[in-house]
């Protein structure tokens, strides 16, 4: 019996690429979607769709023609992201897609502190409204983001207060997504899976773990909102983008990212990775923090 075709968006990214490889290894037919096919990975058992941007409904419809399931990784943050998602979902339904598995964000809500989490909630609401079979994977902060957001000066700064965050690895997200996509039953229909690490830690605790790993002092410096905007001004980013960066920390301070779920272990049959384990397996993630750097 031939498995239904799964269309994977974001296949050139950290989550989509991992998911596409996992599916292809099982023999599931996979179609890779992207606005620039030249950036799509070369994965045996997969084919690249014609170029398709989320906001281009006709291109998305053509790219999704014949697909049974759409694995929808959220578009890059932008003021129009929700509308792009809506266009992509509507194009999928027009192409005959019967199931959507959407990568959302932990605590998605219309009034979420983290401004980008509001985009996810509105996308979820639209998918629900269409009546299509769906599953939402609400992942927490990425574990990879902890060392990445720590400067070479050894400082992790932001308005996170003493709040906790249940950060999760890309590998765990991909394994969970693959488990859901490979289950052709209806057990995941209408279900929201919160994908988190096994513990929620403070940013000060994260800095301490980085200190143990690097052999130098790494500090967490809490900021006020005003200080956070000022310390990020040199990037020259637009106001909406800086607001997303700052409010992601404020969501931690507000306790909105402290949820710890057993979804990873339930879906994969193994424990979720913690920060110490992630750093041990990914030394390149903190190489810029080593004393010799």
Your description of this structure?
The chain has 293 residues and is an alpha/beta fold. It contains eleven helices and eleven strands. It has helices spanning 14-25, 57-64, 81-94, 115-130, 145-148, 170-182, 203-214, 225-231, 239-253, 263-268, 275-281, and strands at residues 6-8, 30-32, 46-48, 69-73, 99-105, 133-139, 155-158, 164-165, 191-195, 201-202, 219-222. Strands 3-2-1-4-5-6-9 form a seven-stranded parallel β-sheet, sandwiched between helices. It has a two-stranded parallel ribbon with strand order 7-11. It has a two-stranded antiparallel sheet with strand order 8-10. Strand 1, helix 1 and strand 2 (30-32) form a beta-alpha-beta unit. Helix 1 (14-25) packs across helix 6, helix 2 packs across helix 3 and helix 3 packs parallel to helix 4. The mean pLDDT is 96.
